[in-house]
User: Fold these one by one.
Assistant:
Number 1:
Amino acid sequence: MKPTILTCAVTGTFPTRAHNPALPVTPAEIADACIGAAKAGAAICHIHVREPSTGLPSMKLEYYRDVVQRIRTSGTDLIINLTAGPGGRFMPSDDNPAIAGPGTNFVSPEIRTQHIVELKPEICTLDLNTNWFGGGAVINSPRNVKIMAERMYAAGVKPEMEVFDSGDLVLAADLVADGTLKQPLLFQIVTGIKYGFPSTPEAMMLARSMLPKGCEWAAFGAGRHAFTMLAQAYILGGHCRIGMEDTVHLAKGTPAPDNAALVSKAAGIITALGGRIATPSEARDMLGLAKNRKT
C-alpha cells in the first residue's frame, strides 16, 4: 500500500480559546503549531490566520506572511497549505436580506487569493461549496471558483478542492471537463458540517465514488467524529486530516494539549491499522509537487 499523507489543520476559523485554551492564535503560535505537527508526523499543515488580539478569523496578508516565513526558516520540510476559503460568506440582514448584515466577509476572488499569489505555498484550498454553513451563506459561484483556480495555477500552486456535499463533486466534474481543474487532482472530503456530508461511512463512500478517476484524496470529520472518520478515510484508501480546526479534543472530555498530540494519535491509528505515514518528500511525489517546490 502507498503511504498515507497526514495533514494537520492547526486553527481554522470556528474553534475559540473558550473551547480549548491551547488553540494557536498569533502567527508565532500558528507557525509553532505547524512545526510541532510536522515533528509528530504531519507532512502537510493547513493554515488559517487570526487577529492576535481577539482570536477572531482574519484574512490579513501580513499574518499569512509571518506564519509562512517562520515555517520556511525553521528547517522543517513541511508542505504548506494555505486556506483560500475565507471571503465567501454572506450574512443576509434581517430587515432586508438583499443587504449584507453583520458577519459578512464576501469579497472578490482576487482578494481571496491575494496571499496565495504573493506567498506561493505548495498547496492551497479551493472550496467548491455553496451552502448554509456556520450561521451564514457560503457562496462559491462557478465564475469565482474559475477565477481563483486560474490565479492559483498561474502562481504555481496546487489547489486542494474541498467538497462538502455531493453537488460540489458535480461542479468539480464540470470544472475538470472544461479544463479549469488540471491533473493531477487533489480533493479533501469534508464531513460533519451540518447541511453537508454527515460523518458516516455511507456518506464518505458516496463522496469517494463521485471523485474524478485517478485523483488523490483525503477526508476528515469535524467535531466528535474526527478520529472515526480519519480511520474511515484510511480504510477506504484515502489520506487523512486532523487538527484543532476539526477537533479540540484528544478524546471525549480530554482537551488536546496541542496539535502535535492530535497528530500523534492520528498516526498511531493509521499505523495500528497497518498503514505507514508519508514523509513530506513522499507526499510531494504522490501529489506532483516535487518538480515545482517553492523555497
Note: The mean pLDDT is 96.
Number 2:
Amino acid sequence: MPVIILKSIIFIFGALIGSFLNVCIYRMPRSGKVEKEDFLKISGSQEHADNLWQDLIASGYIDEDGFVEGKFRKLRKKKKEEGFLLEGKYAKSKKQIFDIINKSFELSVDKPKRSFCPHCQKQVLWYDNIPMLSYLALSGRCRFCKKQISFRYFFVEFLTAALLVVLYGYFGLSAKFFIYSLLTCALIAATFIDFDFQIIPDEITLGGLVVGMILSIIFPQLHDTPLRMHALMYSLLGILCGGGSIYLIGRFGEILFKKESMGGGDVKFLAMIGAVLGWQFALLIFFLAPFFGAVVGIIARLTKGAEVIPYGPYLSLATFLVIIWGNNILAYLFYF
C-alpha cells in the first residue's frame, strides 16, 4: 500500500479518535461535579446561588469543589428525593436541585450515548458529528441554538490526527507506534482537561499506569529488551522515578514557599508516563518540562498576574518530544 494512502487512513482514524477525546475532555472532569451556575435558575441570583451552594456543602451532598459526596450517592441509588433534605426556602425546590445533581452524577464517557451541544443540551445529529468537516460546514455553531462551539473541538481532532501521522513516520506500523499513539491520546486528553480544571483524572493516570505495566510485559521491546521481566522492572522503575521526582520537588516547593506547589495529579501523571517509557525517559521529561512551564508561567504572571498554572500540559509536551527524539537527546547528553 502506498505510504500516502496509509498516512491518509491513519489521519482519518486519528480524527475519529480525536472526536472521542473531545467527549472525554468534556465529560471526565464534569462527571459527578456541579457548578454554582447550575442553580442560578432556581436561586434567582448569584448571592442566593452561593447560599444554596453552602447549604449543599453543609448538608454533605457535595464537597467544596462541587463533587458529589457519598451521602448523595446513597440517596441516588434509590432514585428518590424524599430523603434529600435542605433547609429554608430551598427545601421547596429539592426535586429540581436533586435532579441537577443527579444528572451531573450520571454524566460519563459512555452516558449519554450520543454527543450533545454544551449550550442547549440537544443531541447532535449523526451528520453533524463528522470530525472536522461538520465543524467547518456549520461554521463552528450548533445547528439548533446557533451558539458558537469552541474551536478546541476542531483543534483536538486535527491535532490527534496529525500527531498519529508523525508517530507513524518515526515508528511505522510497529508495536511502539500503537502504544505511543495510545499514550499520545492520553496526553492530549490530560492536557486540555488540566487547562480547564487544573486536574488530571485518575482514569487517565492510574488507569494508564496499569495499562503501561501490562503492555510492558506483553511487548518487552517497548523497553528495548527481549525479556518480559526486565521490561516490567524498567516499567516499575519508570513509575518510581517519574512519580517520585515530581513528588519530591513538590514537597521541596511546599517547604520553600509554604504552600502546595505541585498537585497529586501531576505525580500520578508522570508515574503513568514512566510506566510506558521507563526510568531514563521519565527523568528526561522531568528535567525538560520545567523549561516549557517556566516560559508560559512567566508570561502568565506578567500579563495576567497568575500565580498558578497547570503543569500537565508541559509534561505532555516534553513527553511527546521525548517519544520522538528521546534517544537522540540521551545520546547527545552521554556523549558530553
Note: The chain has a mean pLDDT of 89.
Number 3:
Amino acid sequence: MKKIIFYTMGMTYGGTERVIANLANYFCNKYSITIVTNHNEKCYYELDSKVNLINLDKTNKINESFLKKLVTKISNKRTIKLKEVIEKINPDIVIAFLPEPSIRLMKLKKYFKNIKFMIAIRNHPSKEFPCSKIIRNYYYKKADKIILQTAAYEEFLPSSFKKKLVVIPNYIELNFHKKVYKRRKDIVSVGRLNKQKNQQLLIKAFSKIANEFPNYTLNIYGNGKLKNDLDDLVKKLHLEDRVFINCGVKDVYSKIYDAEMFVLASNYEGMPNAVLEAMYLSLPCISTNCCEVIKDIISNKENGIIVAKNNELELALAMKELLLDESLRKKLSTNAKKIKDIYNKDKILKLWDKLFK
C-alpha cells in the first residue's frame, strides 16, 4: 500500500484543514495516510480511525509566548523532528500545505532522493510570500510537483516551474440537506478573523444600510486574533444589537443555510471555499473580486454578485440592491446550486488519485 504524508501547520478550523481532512478520510481506504502537524491543537475535523495524526510539537500554539513561537520558527528542532518522522514512515509521497511547512519540507529534500516531495499552494501565490519571492522560489524549485487550485495562478510563478505544476481545484462536500422554507432577515459571512478576510469592510458597509433595513442583522462566523478589534468596531458604529461576531461555532451550516444572503469581503483568496459552500447551500452570494478564480465561480448577476476589493460603498450598494430585489435573490439562489456540478467531488478526487499514482 502506497504511503502518503500530508504536512501542515495544524488541523484547526479552516479551508486548508478541511481539504486535508477530506482527502485523508477519502483515501485512507486505498493508501496509508498520515497527517503531520507542527502544533498539537485539537483537530477540528473528524478523521477516520485509519488516518494517523502526528504532532511535531508538544505545546499548543495558542498557549505559546511570542518569544517561544519565534524561537521555534527559526530553529531546526522542528525540521529534525519532521526528518525523523519521514525516516520512520518511509512514505512514497509527502505533500506540504502552506508556506512554512513547504519550506521546512524542501530543506529535507536532499536526504530523501526516492520520495516525491510536493507543495500544495492554498492561497494566492502573489500573497504567500509578500516579503521575499526569492526565498519562495529557491525552495519551491526543489519540489517534484506544485499543486495549484487554478491555472490562472501559473503566471505568478517562474516559467521554470511550468513542468512541475498540477492544477487541482477544491471540490464541495457538504453533508447538509435542510430545506429552506423561509429565509431569515440575516446577512452572514464565514471566515477566519484576520486582515485577509477583511470583515471590517463588511461591518462598515452594513453600517451604511443598517438604518434602511432595521429588521436585518449581520452575523460573522469564524475564529481569529481580530475578534476584539471587530467587537470594538461594532461598538464604535453603535451596532451591538445588529452585528454579531460568533466564534467557536461547530455546525456553521445550520446557522447560515436559511439566511438572506452570504457576503465574502476578502482582500485575497487562493480559492474561496466559503463562497463555494454558500452557493452549494443556494445562498445568494456577494463576493469581492478577491482572486482570479472568482470570475470562474460567479457570473455577475447570474449566480452571484462580484464587487471591487476594499470598496465600502460598492459593497453596501450591492447588499442594498439584493435586499430590495426579491426576484434577483431568487435567481441567484436557484443558479448558485449548480456550482456543485462544476466542482464535482468524484471528478476532482480522480485528479488527486492520478497525481498519487
Note: The CA atoms of residues 204 and 312 lie 7 Å apart.
